[in-house]
Write a structure and sequence with these properties.
The chain is built from eight helices and seven strands. It is of the alpha/beta class and about 210 residues long. The strands form two sheets. It has a five-stranded mixed sheet with strand order 4-3-5-6-7, with helices on both faces. Pfam families: dCMP_cyt_deam_1.
Length: about 210
């Protein structure tokens, strides 16, 4: 199970299997716990994107991957939960920023469906377009709006494999009632990716 609680969020994600000790331990940086309990409100898409790009930069400084994401209440701008990429630190290929942010947001609202009738519309803001895994996660999460900074080709250009995502992926989301906004502060988001690889950051799964 995913460990967390409504209100304040635990910065550690633990998964258990019956009869076994913890088989997955994803520890998020301390600054994520502080941010997630801050009650921050950001009114514009640009401010929200700037926020997640800064998360990515701070994550790199702490030995993490160059991606940040956050779930907001779309209309109020209230931060629900933020996440960063912890693939290398946690030895877990699914520990992408979007997965972390969505998982923590679902724990905060107390349900797996961020699109439930009882919930305000939720928005996922990511410093980069989703990979094929996070594309699927966005669909199942219930978010009503996806906002991206860097493009798929920007991530691929520095060596990351984004997987066999449908070429018309944004339209696929729109057909499911999920609004998509691309290229918000794209150049700033791309700069984070380039800085990461220029600084010797590990590009995992590059062989795929």
């Amino acid at each position: 199970m995913l460990m967390g609680r409504a209100g304040n969020l635990n910065q550690t994600v633990l998964c258990y299997h019956s009869g076994m000790s913890a088989i997955l331990h994803v520890k998020l940086p301390a600054f994520i716990a502080e941010i997630n309990d801050s009650g921050i409100v950001l009114s514009t898409l640009e401010a929200r994107m700037e926020f997640v790009i800064d998360l990515a930069r701070r994550n790199i400084a702490g030995g993490g991957g160059p991606f940040g994401a956050a779930v907001f209440e779309r209309d109020s701008g209230r931060l629900v939960a933020a996440g960063v990429n912890r693939v290398i630190a946690s030895r877990c290929s699914s520990a992408h920023a979007e997965i972390m942010a969505l998982s923590l947001a679902q724990q905060r609202v107390g349900g797996f469906d961020l699109g439930a009738v009882s919930q305000p519309a939720h928005q996922l803001v990511s410093s980069s377009e989703p990979c094929v895994m996070c594309f699927g996660a966005a669909i199942w999460s219930g978010v009503r709006h996806l906002v991206c900074g860097a493009r798929d080709e920007d991530a691929r250009a520095v060596g990351f494999d984004e997987g066999p995502k449908p070429s018309a992926w944004a339209e696929e989301l729109r057909q499911r009632g999920i609004q998509v906004t691309l290229d918000v502060l794209r150049s700033q988001a791309v700069a984070v990716l380039k800085d990461y690889t220029a600084g010797g950051g590990l590009v995992y799964n590059a062989r795929c």
